[in-house]
Design a protein that fits this description.
The complex is a heterodimer of chains A (about 450) and B (about 450). Chain A is mainly alpha-helical and about 450 residues long. Chain A contains 21 helices and six strands. In chain A, the strands form three sheets. In chain A, strands 1-2 form a two-stranded antiparallel ribbon. Chain A has a two-stranded antiparallel ribbon with strand order 3-4. Chain A has a two-stranded antiparallel ribbon with strand order 5-6. The chains are: A mainly alpha (about 450), B mainly alpha (about 450).
Chain lengths: ~450, ~450
C-alpha cells in the first residue's frame, strides 16, 4: 500500500519535474542539486504524505443559502461572511474587556502552536513517537509559565503581596521556570531512541522555533495591551486593513506581480494598501484616542478585583495644534490642525504594517510552499487556519513593543520601586543619596527643606 | 606519512571498537529493509552508501607524533589527549591572569567558533554550500544578536562611559530599536532570497541558524554576565564541569562496569558517582582557595578615570570566613566541632552538584546530536579532542544555571542599573519614587532623623 502510494507520488513528481524543466530549461547544476537533495531526508515530495482533501467545514446553513451562486462568487461570499463574523467577534471581545482579550490571545497562541506542531508531525511522520506530543505541550507550558510569571508579577503586585504562596513563587520565579525547563530537557535526552535520533532532534528544534515565534509574539501583544488598549487595537486593525485593502486594490487594479512567492500579490495592491492603511490608522486612532477606556494603561484594582482603565490621559492623547506644512496648506486650506500626537505615531505603525508586515505573510507563504501545504489548518472555513490569519501579525507585535519602549515610555516606575525595595539597606542608602543629589541638581527637590 | 596518518585516524577515532561499529551499521541496514517509511532511518543507508562521512584530518602536531611514535596506539591516544588537556588548562590559567577584558574576548571567540562549527554541520547535512546567501545571512544574524546582547551589557556596565560620548548615548538610548531594525533587515533579506526549488532547504537553514543562536549566543552572554559578578562565578562553574569530565573519565577508566545510558556507551555509573563526589570536593577546595583573593571575588567594574577594569572592593559577606557547626554525624568522623568556611563554599556545593548531575545531560544531548547527524566530532580544531563544541558541550546548561542561581539566591537587582533607569523617568515620577524610598528608609530606621545622611 505504502509502496504503491510512493510510486504514484514519485510518478506524479517526475511528471511535474519534467514539466518544470521543459519550461525553464533547468540547468544541470539545478538537477544535480535536486538529485542530491532527494538523497537525504529532503526528498521533499516523496516524504510529504498526501494532503488530506481539505474538509469542507462550511456550516450547512451557509451552503444552502449560497447554493445558487457560481463557485467563484460562492467562495467570495464565504470569505466575506467569515471575515465579518471574525471582526464582530473581535469587537465583542474588546467590549468584554482586557481580561477576555488576554484569554483570547492565549487561546490563539495555543491554537497557532498546535497547528505548526501538527505540520511538523506530518512532515516527519513522528506520530509514532508519542513522547513528542507530551514534550511539545510541556515546553509550551513551561515557556508560558515563565512569561506569564514575569508579567503577572509586575501588574498584579498588590494582589500578589497579600498571598504567601504566591510570594514564594514570584521571588524564585526564574529558578522554578528554569528547573521546569530543565526537567523537559532531561526528559528529551532520556527519550532519545536509537533509530530516531535525527527525527527527535528535528522535532526538538521545530518545537523551539515555534515557541520562539508564537509564544514571544503573543506575550508582547499582551504587554502592548497593558500599555493601553489602543496600542493593541490600532496595530492589529492596521494589519487587517492592509490585508483587506491590498486585496481589494489588487482585485480591481492589480496588474504587476509583486513577488514570486505569492503570485496573487501585486504592486498596485501593495501601494494602494499602504495609503489606505495610513489613512485608516489616522482616522481610527482619532476616534479611539477620545475614550479613556482605550487610552489608559490597564491596571488591576485589588479592591474590586477587576481590571480598570481609568487615568489622566497622557499628553499623547491630548489634542494639540499642529501647523500644517505649506504643501498641505495649499491643498486643504487650513493653517493648523487639531490632532492627537498619537496620530503621528499611528502613521509609523501603519507604515510598518503595510511595508514590513507583508514580509511576515511572504514568510508564511514560503513556509507553506516548502512543506507543500495549502493552508496551515482548516479551522476557519474559507480562510484556513488561525495561523493563516495571523501570519502578518508576527512582526507587528514585536515592532510595537520595541517602538513603545524606545520612543514612548521609559521604564515602569512601580517596577523600579519594587526593585529598589528589595535591595540591601546599604545599597538603598547609597541609591538614596545619589538620587537626592541628582534631584537637587535638577532643581526638582529643594535643598533647603528638611526632607 | 599519509599512510600512518590514516592508520592513526582509524585508531584514534575508534572510541568504540571497530567491530561494534560494523555491527551497528549492519543492524541499521537490515532495519531499513524492514520498514522503509520512517524519515529518520531511510537516509542513513543512502548517506553511508552515497556521500562519505566528513573525512577527519590528522592534525596532531608533528612534534607530538615523533615524540610518541614508539608507544602503542592506545597509550599514544591517551598521551595526546593528556597533553592537549594540560595545554588547554594552562591556557585557561594564563587568560585568567590576563584579566577580564581578555576573558571576554576569549569567550567571544569561542562563541564564534562554536557557531561556525554547528553551522558547518548544517551545511554538510543539507548540502547547502551552493546557496551562498546562507553563509552571509547566518553570519549576519550572528552579528545582529551579538550586537543586541553586547549593547545591553555595555549599557549596563559602562554606563558612565556611555553617557559621556554623544554617539554612544544615542546608540544606547535607541538600542533595542536599532537591533530590531537590523534583525528585520536580515529577515526581509531571507524572505527575498527564497528560491523556487529550495524553499524547504532554506527554511531548514533558517531554523538551524536560529536554534544555534539560541544555544550558543545566549549561553556565552550569560557567561559574561556571570563573569561581571566576580571572576569566581566564572571560574568555579567551568572548573567543576571540567573536573567532572576528567574525574568521571578516570573513575570509569579504573572502576567502570555498569553502563550509564545507551547514548554514550562509554559512560558508567561508577564514573558518574565517583565524578560527583570528586567534583563536590574539588569545588569546595577550589572555592576555599579562591575566596581569599579579592581579584576573584569582587565584581568587575569599569573605572572611568583609568579607563580600565578594576576588581577592588570590600568583599561581601559571602566571602568572609564564618564559623559553622559541623553536624554531629560528621563530628565524630572529622574530629572538629566547628569549621571555618566561606559561605560561598556552600553555594559551590550546589554548583558542583549541578555540574555533576545535570551537566552530563548536555553531553548526552551533544552525543545524541552527533549520532543523529552521523558525525564523529563537531570539528577537528583540537587534536585528540575534536572541536571546540566537544569541549564545551557540558557547559551549555551550566552558564544558565549559574546565572539563574545568582539572580535568584545571591544578589538582587543591580543598583547602578536602577539609578540609570531612574534617571530616564519623568520628574514627577522621580519625585514620587524618591519620597517612597525615603519613607521606606525612615520606616526601617536606616535613615533616622538625619537631614542628609
Amino acid at each position: 500500500m505504502s509502496a504503491r502510494r510512493r510510486q504514484r507520488r514519485a510518478a506524479a513528481e517526475e511528471a511535474e519535474e519534467e514539466e518544470e524543466a521543459a519550461e525553464e530549461g533547468g540547468s544541470d547544476k539545478e538537477e544535480d542539486l535536486e538529485k542530491r537533495l532527494c538523497e537525504l531526508d529532503l526528498r521533499s515530495d516523496l516524504d510529504v504524505p498526501d494532503i488530506p482533501p481539505p474538509t469542507d467545514s462550511t456550516p450547512e446553513i451557509l451552503k444552502r443559502a449560497l447554493s445558487g451562486l457560481s463557485a467563484r462568487w460562492k467562495n467570495w461570499w464565504i470569505r466575506g461572511i467569515l471575515s465579518l463574523a471574525m471582526i464582530s467577534g473581535f469587537f465583542l471581545v474588546i467590549y468584554l474587556g482586557s481580561f477576555m482579550l488576554m484569554l483570547l490571545v492565549l487561546s490563539i497562541q495555543v491554537k497557532c502552536y498546535h497547528e505548526i506542531i501538527t505540520i511538523g508531525y506530518r512532515v516527519y511522520h513522528s506520530y509514532d513517537l508519542p513522547w513528542f506530543r507530551s514534550l511539545s505541550w510541556y515546553f509550551l507550558l513551561c515557556v508560558n509559565y515563565f512569561f506569564y510569571g514575569e508579567t503577572v508579577a509586575d501588574y498584579f503586585a498588590t494582589f500578589v503581596q497579600r498571598r504567601e504562596q504566591l510570594q514564594f513563587l514570584i521571588r524564585y520565579h526564574r529558578f522554578i521556570s528554569f528547573a521546569l525547563y530543565l526537567t523537559g530537557f532531561c526528559m528529551f535526552v532520556l527519550s532519545l531512541v536509537k533509530k530516531h535520533y535525527r527525527l527527535q532532534f528535528y522535532m526538538f528544534a521545530w518545537t523551539h522555533v515555534t515557541l520562539l515565534i508564537t509564544v514571544t509574539q503573543s506575550h508582547l501583544v499582551i504587554q502592548n495591551l497593558f500599555e493601553g488598549m489602543i496600542w493593541f487595537l490600532v496595530p492589529i486593525s492596521s494589519v487587517i486593513c492592509n490585508d483587506i485593502a491590498a486585496y481589494i486594490f489588487g482585485f480591481f487594479f492589480g496588474k504587476t506581480p509583486l513577488i514570486k512567492l505569492s503570485p496573487k500579490k501585486t504592486w498596485e495592491g501593495f501601494i494602494g494598501g499602504f495609503f489606505s492603511t495610513v489613512v485608516f490608522g489616522f482616522i481610527f486612532s482619532y476616534f479611539l484616542a477620545q475614550h479613556q477606556y482605550f487610552v489608559c494603561p490597564v491596571e488591576y484594582n485589588s479592591e474590586t478585583n477587576r481590571f480598570v482603565t481609568e487615568c489622566e490621559p497622557s499628553e499623547l492623547f491630548q489634542i494639540k495644534k499642529y501647523p500644517l506644512p505649506p504643501v498641505f496648506q495649499a491643498v486643504l486650506g487650513w493653517e493648523t490642525v487639531n490632532m492627537y500626537p498619537f496620530q503621528l505615531h499611528s502613521i509609523a505603525l501603519s507604515t510598518f504594517a503595510s511595508l514590513i508586515g507583508p514580509f511576515g505573510g511572504f514568510f508564511a507563504s514560503g513556509f507553506k510552499r516548502a512543506f507543500k501545504i495549502k493552508d496551515f489548518a482548516d479551522t476557519i472555513p474559507g480562510h484556513g487556519g488561525i495561523m493563516d490569519r495571523f501570519d502578518c501579525q508576527y512582526l507587528m507585535a514585536t515592532f510595537v513593543h520595541v517602538y513603545i519602549t524606545s520612543f514612548i515610555r521609559g521604564p515602569n516606575p512601580s517596577k523600579l520601586l519594587k526593585q529598589l525595595l528589595i535591595l540591601q539597606p546599604e545599597q538603598q542608602l547609597s541609591v538614596y543619596k545619589t538620587l537626592k543629589s541628582h534631584l537637587i541638581e535638577k532643581g526638582i527637590l529643594q535643598p533647603s527643606l528638611r526632607v | 606519512m599519509s599512510g600512518t596518518g590514516m592508520g592513526d585516524l582509524r585508531q584514534r577515532h575508534g572510541r568504540e571498537p571497530a567491530a561494534a561499529r560494523d555491527s551497528e551499521d549492519k543492524e541499521s541496514e537490515s532495519e531499513n529493509k524492514l520498514d522503509g517509511e520512517t524519515a529518520s532511518d531511510s537516509e542513513s543507508k543512502s548517506e553511508f552508501g552515497g556521500s562519505p562521512p566528513v573525512p577527519t584530518s590528522d592534525d596532531t602536531p608533528e612534534v607530538l607524533n615523533r615524540a610518541l611514535s614508539n608507544l602503542s596506539s592506545r597509550w599514544k591516544n591517551w598521551w595526546v589527549r593528556g597533553i592537549l588537556t594540560l595545554a588547554m588548562i594552562t591556557f585557561f590559567f594564563i587568560i585568567i591572569y590576563l584579566g577580564p577584558m581578555v576573558l571576554m574576548t576569549i569567550v567571544m571567540c569561542v562563541q564564534i567558533k562554536c557557531f561556525h562549527e554547528i553551522i558547518t554541520i548544517g551545511y554538510n547535512v543539507y548540502h547547502s554550500y551552493d546557496l551562498p546567501w546562507f553563509r552571509t545571512l547566518s553570519w549576519y544574524f550572528l552579528l545582529c544578536v551579538n550586537y543586541f546582547f553586547y549593547g545591553e551589557t555595555v549599557t549596563d556596565y559602562f554606563f558612565t562611559l556611555v553617557q559621556r560620548e554623544e554617539p554612544l548615548r544615542i546608540l544606547s538610548k535607541y538600542h533595542r530599536f536599532i537591533s530590531f531594525t537590523l534583525y528585520l533587515t536580515g529577515f526581509c533579506m531571507f524572505v527575498l532570497s527564497l528560491v523556487k526549488k529550495h524553499y524547504r532547504l532554506q527554511f531548514y537553514m533558517f531554523g538551524w541558524t536560529h536554534v544555534t543562536l539560541l544555544i550558543v549566543v545566549t549561553q556565552s552572554h550569560l557567561i559574561i554576565h556571570n563573569l561581571f559578578e566576580g571572576m569566581i562565578w566564572f571560574i568555579v562553574p567551568i572548573s567543576c564541569v571540567i573536573c567532572n569530565d576528567i574525574m568521571a573519565y578516570m573513575f570509569g577508566f579504573f572502576f567502570g562496569r555498569t553502563p550509564l545510558i545507551k547514548l554514550s556507551p562509554k559512560k558508567t555509573w561508577e564514573g558518574f558517582i565517583g565524578g560527583f563526589f570528586a567534583t563536590v570536593l574539588f569545588g569546595l577546595l577550589l572555592s576555599y582557595v579562591m575566596s581569599g583573593y579579592r581579584c576573584f571575588t569582587c565584581p568587575v567594574e569599569f573605572n572611568n578615570d583609568t579607563n580600565s577594569f578594576t576588581v577592588d572592593c570590600e568583599p561581601s559577606e559571602l566571602f568572609q570566613l564564618q564559623e559553622y557547626n559541623i553536624p554531629v554525624v560528621l563530628q565524630s568522623v572529622v574530629g572538629w566541632k566547628t569549621v571555618r568556611m566561606y559561605p560561598f563554599q556552600i553555594h559551590s556545593i550546589a554548583l558542583s552538584t549541578f555540574a555533576s548531575l545535570i551537566g552530563p545531560f548536555g553531553g548526552f544531548f551533544a552525543s545524541g546530536f552527533k549520532r543523529a547527524f552521523k558525525i564523529k566530532d563537531f570539528a577537528n580544531t583540537i587534536p585528540g579532542h575534536g572541536g571546540i563544541m566537544d569541549r564545551f558541550d557540558c557547559q551549555y546548561l551550566m552558564a544558565t544555571f549559574v546565572n539563574v542561581y545568582i539572580a535568584s539566591f545571591i544578589r538582587g537587582p543591580n543598583p547602578s542599573k536602577l539609578i540609570q533607569q531612574f534617571l530616564t523617568l519623568r520628574p514627577d515620577q522621580q519625585l514620587h519614587i524618591f519620597n517612597t524610598l525615603k519613607a521606606h528608609l525612615v520606616d526601617r530606621g536606616i535613615l533616622g532623623s538625619l537631614e542628609d545622611a
